[in-house]
Structures are given as structure tokens and as C-alpha cells.
Specification:
heterodimer; A: 139 residues; alpha+beta; four-stranded antiparallel beta sheet; two-stranded antiparallel ribbon; 6 strands; 24% helix; B: 408 residues; mainly alpha; two-stranded antiparallel sheet
């Protein structure tokens, strides 16, 4: 019963296995098929009793730091806008094992892209931490 | 006054009292067992009873029934009949009788055992066994179970539905594997306290009921282990919610009544052991917990006796490093205290492959390095542990240990 995030990225991560143009350049029916698959994932997870959460993040990002005493916050744009890691969204799942999380991530990655072919997108799998320890900590 | 509310035969308006939720929940497995024994389908009966439970939670505070058990059975049966009528079923079932004798303790235990075997069916995944047990035997609502595991209510409801669907067609009237039941109860215990639901308390309650129906020493061993561990919980977190390890805990906060009961239950289990039937895993773990609980201070801990019990525990497995690495790791700590920290560290080496990526292995080594006076190695080990922690409370604790040891 651990929880995992299955993260999609706009960019960053390992080298793309199948580079494709941005989705706005696909054929309309390819766009539909891709979006329908995303809904199907959520429904499948709900049906399985594995669904916890699903979110998308807008691509705009701002880096912020403390400006110092009596100073305004300091913001900056992405220093490496072409290559830096940018999370697009996630599913959070509650599953029996890490192996199951990987299996689900691979399935997400099989989502259709241009030409109806799988995207082979790299999915980032991260374990979500509990807030409290299990009761039986012996030491 | 005195007119019955709704059209339920056994309800007479009584002055409103605060609802005894514990008593209500305890009725759930009794009523469910009665329905299933009468021939109702487990899946349909459990759904109908869950609905009756939700209605009871709504209605009873204002209109407490005179016979709560009969009320639940009647309402659940009515739901079943309605459900069947809407499916245009052919078979008629008997209506529940109201003149049921008061339950005997053993009958209560038998109901629990029967349902536990249903819910802990080996075909189900552990998460499903846990969820179904909590609902059908624990009498918790789907919402409460979902909250306890931080998942949406719909997800938990679906998990339970699927579990029951997959049980269709199985024979549910035969004896199951008690070891599986014990494991599920232990899983519930370790899940702990979340929001308003105390799963550790729930596990203890279910283990008590289980022990009404079986003489099996391991069932007593499990109850003893839970009690002896639970007794220490008040000392486990400080006022700020930070973890306090066993050696640092304020033992004045331990629940002496729970310890006494745990020791009693354990002794009754060990009394029936023979050379041919040595104590099982839960009894050995309970004995170790009892020895810790018996020490007035950390310094007075009887480590040689604890080590002897770990030797027995480890001997239960053919390949302990692979089959019960937690026991081997616990034994390494005992070795460290009996034969010196370096001996303990050597004992952890055999677990490097199996546990090397888990935080507990590194944390134990940190503890042993500190015991041997090697503070830099201890700090490094705790930092390695922190990187591998899977809950924030332990991660924070391990980070603090590393920082403390690095500071000298």
C-alpha cells in the first residue's frame, strides 16, 4: 500500500526514445486519441481501486528566492528553458508494490502519439513519503 | 411518546443518548455472520449491512432502537430483499427472527473467526484483505477506512467491491489459514493512527475477538505482541511530535495495564509449548517486547535474554537473512549489546544485499557505530538512512541523529 507519483514532464529526463513534434502539430484525431487515453488511465485506476490523485501543471514557472531583509522577493525565468526539467503533471497511485507502480508507468508511456504509435514517453516514478512512522518501530 | 418511528417493529422512541459507536461497530460482524450463515450471499449481505450501518449512524442518535442487533439485521435484510426484488429474483428467503438469544462469548468469537477467514481469503491482495476486514469485521465505514489510508473514499469503495466480487464462487464456509489472518491483523496494527481512526486499537480489538474462537498460541502471541508494543506508544513521540527511540523513552509513560495484560496473554501461550512445538514467530516477538517492557530503564534491559529469543526467532526460518531479515537485524542489535558493537556490526553484513537500500539497516548500523564510539561512521550511517527513509517522521529523526553526531 505505498503511494507513488507517476510524473509526466514537458521536458527534461532521459533522452527521448521517440522524438515527436509538439502535440499542437499532430493530426486532430491523433490529439483526440491521446487525450482519450489520459482519461482512460484515470478511469482504469479508479476501477482498480488504485487512484489517489491526478493533476496537471501549467507550464509557466517562476523561480523565486528571498530578497533579504526589507527587500522584495527576487524572481527569475528559467536559466535553461530548452533543457531544464519541467513537470507537466502526475497521477498519484496507491498500489501493492513498486513493481506495480512501474507497470502502471510503462502503460502510461504506451499512450498513442502521432501516427497512432506509442509515445514511449519517459515517466518519472517517485515514492510518496508517509507522514508518520509505522507503529512497530522497535528502536 | 412511545409511538414507534418509521415502520420498524422494534424501535420505540427513547430519550436521545450519545451514540455508542464502539458497540454499534461490534454488532456488524455478528449480524453479517448471521446473514451469511442463513444463506445470504456474502457480497450482497456485506453491502446491505454497510448501508444499514450508515443509516444507523444517522438515525440512532435521535431514535435509539431497543434491540440494536435486530434493528441492523432487519434493515439489512430489507435492503437485500429490495435489491433482489429489483433484480426480479425468484427465490424467497426467510425473514430474520427477532427472538434471538443474547450472544455468548464463544458465539461472538466464532462469528469473528468465520468472517476473518472470508475477508482474509488468500486469493485477495493484502490491501484488499485489510480493507475488507476493517469493513466487514471491524464495522468501520468506507469513509473511515479511506481516511485511515489517505485514499479517496471512492477508491476504497472500489477496492472493497472488487475484493468481494473476486470472492464470488469461493467456498466461504471452510476453515481458512489462520496465519494469513494473523498477518492481516498485524498489517492493520502497524498502519497506526490516522485522523480519527485508531487502526492499532482496532487491530487489538479484532485480535481479542479472534482469541475468543481459537486456542492457537500464535493468535495469543499476536495479541500479546500488539499489547506490549501499544503500551509504549505514549512515549514514542515527544510534545513536538518527534520520534523518541526506545532507549530514550520516558518509561513512566508506558501503559502498565497493557503490559500486564500482554505478559499474561503471552504466558498463557507459552504454557502450552513443547519441544515438538516451539513458540512461533509472534510469541517470540512478544517475548522480546515483554523483556523490553520489563526493564525499568534502558540500562537494565536484559539483552542476553533478548538475544536468546532472537536466536529462537531466527531459527524458525531456513534462510533467515532472506525470509526474515527484520528478525536478523533485530538480533544484530541484541548481539551488539551483549558481545560488543563490532560483533553487532558484523552481524548486519549478511543483510547488506537484502536490506542495503532500506533505511532501517543503515539506522541500526548508525546505532551500533555510536555504541562503539565511532561517531563519524555513525553520522554517515544515519545520513545514508535519512536518504532512504519512506516517511517524514523517521527521515527527520535520522537527519537529526546525523547532525547531532557530526557536531560531536
Amino acid at each position: 500500500m505505498p503511494k507513488y507519483l507517476l510524473l509526466k514532464h514537458y521536458r527534461g529526463g532521459p533522452e527521448s526514445h521517440r522524438p515527436v513534434p509538439p502535440i499542437d502539430q499532430w493530426a486532430p484525431e491523433e490529439v483526440e486519441a491521446h487525450m482519450a487515453f489520459q482519461n482512460h488511465i484515470s478511469e482504469m485506476l479508479e476501477e482498480n481501486g488504485e487512484y489517489v490523485d491526478a493533476r496537471a501543471l501549467a507550464p509557466a514557472r517562476t523561480w523565486v528566492r528571498y530578497g533579504g531583509p526589507d527587500a522584495a522577493p527576487v524572481t527569475t525565468d528559467d536559466p535553461h528553458p530548452e533543457t531544464s526539467d519541467l513537470v507537466a503533471g502526475w497521477w498519484m497511485v496507491d498500489v501493492e508494490s513498486h513493481e506495480r507502480a512501474l507497470e502502471l508507468a510503462a502503460y502510461v508511456s504506451s499512450e498513442p502519439g502521432p501516427g497512432g504509435e506509442p509515445l514511449y514517453e519517459w515517466i518519472d516514478v517517485r515514492e510518496v513519503m508517509w507522514e508518520r512512522p509505522q507503529t512497530t518501530d522497535p528502536t | 411518546m412511545g409511538a414507534s418511528s418509521d415502520d420498524r417493529p422494534d424501535v420505540i422512541d427513547e430519550p436521545a443518548r450519545p451514540l455508542d459507536e464502539g458497540a454499534l461497530r461490534a454488532l456488524v460482524p455478528r449480524v453479517l455472520a448471521g446473514l451469511v450463515r442463513r444463506g445470504e450471499d456474502f457480497d450482497a449481505a456485506e453491502d446491505a449491512l454497510q448501508e444499514a450501518l450508515l443509516e444507523a449512524l444517522r438515525v440512532w442518535p435521535e431514535h435509539p432502537p431497543r434491540d440494536p442487533r435486530a434493528w441492523l439485521a432487519t434493515v439489512a435484510t430489507r435492503r437485500l430483499v429490495d435489491a433482489r426484488r429489483s433484480e426480479a429474483a425468484r427465490h424467497r428467503r426467510e425473514e430474520v427472527t427477532h427472538a434471538e438469544p443474547p450472544p455468548a462469548a464463544t458465539e461472538e468469537g466464532d462469528d469473528t473467526l468465520f468472517l476473518l477467514f472470508c475477508c482474509c481469503h488468500p486469493d485477495l491482495a493484502p490491501a484488499s484483505q485489510v480493507a475488507l476486514t476493517l469493513r466487514a469485521v471491524g464495522g468501520l465505514t468506507t469513509r473511515e477506512i479511506a481516511d485511515a489510508f489517505y485514499v479517496p473514499e471512492a477508491t476504497m469503495a472500489q477496492r472493497i467491491s472488487r475484493a468481494k466480487r473476486s470472492l464470488r464462487g469461493s467456498r466461504l464456509d471452510q476453515l481458512g489459514d489462520l496465519a494469513v489472518v494473523l498477518r492481516v491483523l498485524y498489517l492493520i496494527y502497524t498502519a497506526g493512527h490516522a485522523g480519527r481512526v485508531d487502526l492499532s486499537g482496532e487491530a487489538i480489538r479484532l485480535a481479542r475477538q479472534l482469541n475468543l474462537a481459537t486456542e492457537e498460541p500464535e493468535a495469543r502471541g499476536l495479541l500479546a505482541l500488539m499489547l506490549l508494543n501499544h503500551a509504549r506508544l505514549p512515549a514514542r513521540l515527544d510534545a513536538e511530535g518527534r520520534i523518541v527511540t526506545l532507549d530514550q523513552q520516558d518509561r513512566g509513560l508506558w501503559d502498565t495495564r497493557e503490559i500486564a495484560e500482554g505478559v499474561r496473554v503471552l504466558q498463557s501461550a507459552l504454557a502450552v509449548q513443547t519441544d515438538d512445538r516451539p513458540p512461533g514467530r509472534y510469541q517470540a516477538e512478544a517475548a522480546i517486547a515483554a523483556l523490553h517492557d520489563d526493564a525499568a530503564s534502558a540500562e537494565e534491559t536484559d539483552w542476553p535474554q533478548i538475544l536468546a529469543w532472537y536466536d529462537d526467532l531466527v531459527a524458525l526460518s531456513d534462510d533467515p537473512a532472506r525470509q526474515d531479515p527484520a528478525a536478523v537485524l533485530g538480533r544484530a542489535v541484541a548481539v551488539g549489546h551483549v558481545r560488543g558493537a563490532d560483533a553487532g556490526l558484523r552481524e548486519t553484513e549478511q543483510l547488506r544485499e537484502v536490506l542495503g537500500e532500506r533505511h532501517r539497516w543503515h539506522a541500526v548500523r548508525g546505532h551500533l557505530h555510536e555504541l562503539s564510539g565511532n561517531l563519524p561512521a555513525a553520522a554517515t550511517a544515519y545520513a545514508e538512512a535519512a536518504r532512504r527513509a519512506t516517511n517524514t517522521a523517521e527521515r527527520d529523526h535520522l537527519v537529526r541523529q546525523a547532525a547531532r553526531l557530526r557536531a560531536g
